[in-house]
């Protein structure tokens, strides 16, 4: 199992301090310092998200610039965009292909590209019809590799008309950087598999049983894939909150439980979880009821139609209804379903083994969460990094 780092670039107001005017600049400097340490410790990829207008929750509104800065200040650490918001009002496929190829060159071939649909608040900000997003992402997956590997590119659909243009530069890596898809539902895991791209699991609230089922759905789909790129990227990566300290007590004193609750409340509030849940449920219901079977997703949903509601789902429902869940509630539920890896180095080692045994190819360790101070994050990155050779003997 490879060990990576996942970054939202978070900074709650309680960390802004008296020098409020410079809190953003300080966050950028701290993020770069964390990436330099990750390079030193042998982590595989630094994954950077893209979000807009997400004050406190994510300052990563121009991730390709942060990734360029990280690439320029590291030697071996790969840089991954997890993921470019692919509906064209966010990022036109030509611009995605150009920026990605450019970053691949300046990183000397250390770049990996993920695509995502985004969610309701960002769709609203950029005047995007939610019903168009899955199709636009699919077309972006099909277009970008062709832009990278052909001299003259053309495309015509309801969304795009491109006639005989040459997209430059071409990527440094041949045939092109690895492709990934951000996944948060059975439908998206199946789509990633059928596209022959890697799956980026983007939920902290999945139990390991769910993770294993989604991995199985992805593996079944990729067996039948028609790859959008020139090669298949058969990998599954999942992010989870990781905080290593000298002891479990020290981890709690560093604010691990508070950070998990802050992230839970912040994520479901920012992403307007209730509305997003309704949209996702509508897609899944359509797949389950599809007269043609709904593909692997339809089969998966019919097999799980009678599954009981989990404690985690009850917590999520409370947040959807506008309630703020307490650190104690979050900690209890996430610990029971192994959705976080927190404690001493020995406890973190055992938690990582659980994910390795679940069949995950890459663990995207999520250290910079909530109000955990920078010094504690650096300590966590170092302590976790010391374990990497046990899981990935080939790590640099």
Explain this structure.
By secondary structure, this protein is an alpha/beta fold. It contains 16 helices and eleven strands. The protein has helices spanning 23-41, 63-72, 93-106, 120-125, 133-149, 186-195, 208-223, 248-253, 256-270, 273-289, 295-303, 311-320, 327-336, 345-357, 374-385, 388-391; strands at 2-7, 45-48, 78-85, 111-116, 153-156, 161-165, 179-183, 198-201, 236-244, 340-343, 362-366. An eight-stranded parallel barrel has the order 1-2-3-4-7-8-9-11, surrounded by eight helices. Strands 5-6 form a two-stranded antiparallel sheet. β3, α3 and β4 (111-116) form a beta-alpha-beta unit. α2 (63-72) runs parallel beside α3. It starts with a strand and ends in a 5-residue tail after the last helix. The model has no long low-confidence stretch (mean pLDDT 90).
What attributes does this structure have?
8-stranded parallel beta barrel; 396 residues; alpha/beta; 16 helices; 15% strand; globular
Could you outline the blueprint of secondary structure elements for this entry?
Blueprint: E1 2-7, H1 23-41, E2 45-48, H2 63-72, E3 78-85, H3 93-106, E4 111-116, H4 120-125, H5 133-149, E5 153-156, E6 161-165, E7 179-183, H6 186-195, E8 198-201, H7 208-223, E9 236-244, H8 248-253, H9 256-270, H10 273-289, H11 295-303, H12 311-320, H13 327-336, E10 340-343, H14 345-357, E11 362-366, H15 374-385, H16 388-391
Parallel strand pairs: 1-2, 1-11, 2-3, 3-4, 4-7, 7-8, 8-9, 9-10, 9-11
Antiparallel strand pairs: 5-6
Helix pairs in contact: 1-15, 2-3, 3-5, 6-7, 9-13, 10-11
